[in-house]
Amino acid sequence: MQPEYQIPKSRPTISSRLWVLLLLLLTVSFNGMAQTFSEGMGTTALSRESISSYYGKGGFNNDTERGFVYSGSAVLANSNSSADVSLNRYPGASGSNSVYFGPGYVSGNSGPTRSDSPPYNFQIANINTAALSSPSFTFGLLAPTGTAIGTLNAQFQVEFSADGTNYITATYAALTTNTVTSGSIFNQYAITSNIPQVNNLRIRFTRLNNNSNLYRLDDVVLNATAAPAIQVSPTTLIFNNTDVNTQSASQTITVSGQNLTNNIIVTAPNGFLIRTGSNSYTSSLTLTQSGGVVASTIVDVLFAPTAVQSYSGSVTLTSVNAQTRTVAVSGTGVAPAPELTASPNSLTFPTTQVGLTSAVQSFTVSGSNLVNPVTITAPTGFQIRQGANPFSSASITLTPTGGAVNSSIDIRFAPTVDGSYDDVVSVTSSGALTTGVDVSGIATPAPTGPFITANPTSLDFQTVSSSGSAQALTFEISAGNLTAPLVLTGSSGVIRFRDASAGGSFVSGPISITPVSGSVSLRTIEVQLFGPIPNGVFNGNITLTSTGATPVVVNITANNSIGNESTFTVANNLTLFSTVPGLPSAVQSYQVSGRNLLQDIIVRAPQYFQVSLDASFAGITGTGNVITVPRNAGNDIDPAVTVYVRFLPPSALSTTSLIIFTSSPAGSQGLPVEGTSEPSVQILTAPQQILTVVINTASASQALTIKAERVQQNIIISKSVSPNPLNPNNVQQFEISADNVNFSNTLMLTPDQSTFSVNQQIYFRYKPTYLGAAQSTLQFRSNDFNNTNVQSFGANDLLSGRSIDTEPTLRSSPTVTRSGNTATVNFNLPANYAALGYGEGRLIAASTSATLPASSQPLDGEGYLAGSQVYGQGPQIAPGYFVVYSGTTQNATIEGLDPAVTYYFYSFEYNYIDPNFNIAIGGAQNYLSPPVPGVINGIIVPGTPLPVTLVSFTGKLRNNQVALNWVTASELNNKLFEVQRSASGQEFETILTREGKGTTSSRTSYEAVDSQPLMGLSYYRLKQVDRDGTYAYSPVVAINNGGLASATFYPNPTTGKLTIILPQGQAGASQKVYITDLAGRLVRSQELPANGEISLSELQAGTYLVSVGTGANRIVQRVVKQ
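^ thats the sequence. predicted structure below, dont judge the formating
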């Protein structure tokens, strides 16, 4: 027999390759079950060698290889005949040694055997089945041919134990059916009961003591479903410190996989890279499985830090359903050593007089991996500069960009004492090795007497215009041994200069410089030519003088070949730029033209603005940029060039500034610009107060227009509730909607993303839950605003309304008792009348008219004062209909009645008590409407019988006169009748009289004619006067005369504006308009405008009498102001 191992560890011989072949065969034979271990009993056993002896010398297949423990009273056996071996009897049979369940030799390995004395057993321990999926055991067993499986289970027992003490019996069944004519033969059997899944499983085979059969055991195999597995070694890699942005030396890990269903993904953490073979390094790679296997593969790992810091993490190896493996990796990224160089490393200067300067030389400073600024310091006698800056002995500081510098430095020899100079320009940066440039030169003494130096001594401005030079030129001066100031004098007023070291404006001179200890230190003089410059060649100079010193002349030349002034024009005004943060505004433009320019025009945009010669602003980044408008026709810009401008704010802001234009010597110009990116939102229409809305119902809606600009985010509209003691829980009384269909307490408006604006109608309605007045303030919230909290609009945002109570459903039937000048009304209300549907209160209007038009009933939401319940003192619900009572009592007494006059009372039910707090709310009255259209009949309140029985009193309009007729049935002491007329129905005047018949029982007819009636509606009545002076009034007759009677008043009711249209023929005449209240008090008078419109906006809500015209052409109309 050859040993077989799934993963050979201590015996990597050729047998392992045979095992792999066997493994493949078993994989096919057991339908995808991988062999976890197979025990074939080895090949080196002696005949009837004890288990302990064979285990002690490592003869079993899995003792030292897997750490299994073998024990038992059975012995090892070699084959005695072909029937005693398992070879070829079942798949995977080893065919060599087996375990014999019988007696061993008495002593040694030969000789007589012991007597047969079962039971005999064989156990394999230390089997780990805890993590296996669907484990199964098979074994080969030599047993008497044809033995029934039940008999066999009873004679040869298989058991499992998790602790070595408690065993459970397993059942098994045959997998093969080999037979022989007689004797025993090997077959393969499989455990059919559950296999415990524990860390240390023991399987024990026993020949029991109730039989004499001699059994042999071979090929104990544990199979389980294959679980995907990844192996990696080592599991930790530590890298040496590595410069950032470089790569360390690589280290390796070895990766393999078995039973895989997917590839292995290897991923490196930040700062580490991986690869296989000679491939490029990357942060992730894939190891491809084939047949479920990834062969042993070397993966290179290197450290590639990008920052100065410690790095630690794990290289992860994953595959679907396999346990993730990791390799811990760590390393530290360190800063690379800074490098600093100067080239060339030495400069030699020519001999130079003290007080003068040499020609300029240059060197270049370069550096990398720098973490600190570079400082360049010149030694005594030398001066340095960077770019066009002035020369100075002060140090120059270079700031690294990305750790690097590369700058050219100018240097010159400027000796202050004579002698030989040999020193170093030091170039330093903290952390880097110091470098430098060796500099040397010889200085000769300055003159012993007063002297002046200038360098250069000629300045050529070349082409200039009549406006001046395009630039400033410079020369340097110094002086020594002076006893008086150094004076610089220009030869012409167009030459202007200044001491650059002292600053200040350019002057035409002279400039006087006071020596210090006889010396004027080296300094720079700037020179510029200012117009008017004469045409042609210009020659001038600046002379430097001081007492005792030889004057020095600096010659100045120029050529005014232009011959004219340099000018340019910026045309067009810019309007306000508007946009949202982070997005450019709409583009505006202006035009630039110029004449006789020496330079192109430089255009400088202010912060938050961009300028461009291209409307697309291609290549323009940032704001406050500078562009050049080139000359396009010699020294001119003609045609004009268009310059484009836009506003690009980074945040919400408003700004004003200037675009600056320069082209020396033409004057500078500025173009004002202003821009805003601050969002705005407003309500364009003012909400109107909503009146007479019944509690717990919704009013009709009103529309409001919301306009917002420069907004990107949604706008949330909501409302705040004004406190009211009747609304302690601050229940919302108004609702808002975006579509006039769905109303709620908030709504959201979405800006147009192409215009960043909102221009939308919203709607609100009043939905009261208590009686009286309510207010809410519209408010908004948007993340576009610096204040992202809820805030008010500030205007047109107040919603207001007044509610009224529900309308009663039942009306009472009052009775009236008349007594002289008083009348008592009893409303005859049942108990709990309000709950039954009667009004909580009642209003009585009294009149001498027997009917009331249905359109003249009390107005909802109007609380009428009863005038102390005296007739004629309270307000009128219509002309001649006085409110004499309003309240909640069961009865009322009305005073001020004329005993001789018959009155008619009109009773109205109303509700006005808040249901939540049981409090009466003024102005919340809701009056019960009449049951049917038409007129309302009054409750008659008869007076004392008149001394005259009036049958009828009528009036008719005939030929622009009013004919009045009345008939009496009888008269008693009747002295006379006064015919009275009124324009308002309240104040009457007597216009005619007719003598009465005294006392008569006969029928008498009377007539009278008003030959000059009032225009429009007039009222007539009779005043019957008795001989004793008592009197009584007849009912009132109304007559509508022509003239202005056809005038039209609209709208009525009105909220403010009233239009009066007069009939043809009257419209052109001047007409006076009078407005009185129902008590007859004049409120206002004015001329009627030509368009007929008058404003009632300033009047309080109520009923007014509006009259137009005078005398006979006067007409009065009742108008309701809401």
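Confidence is low (pLDDT under 50) at residues 1-35.
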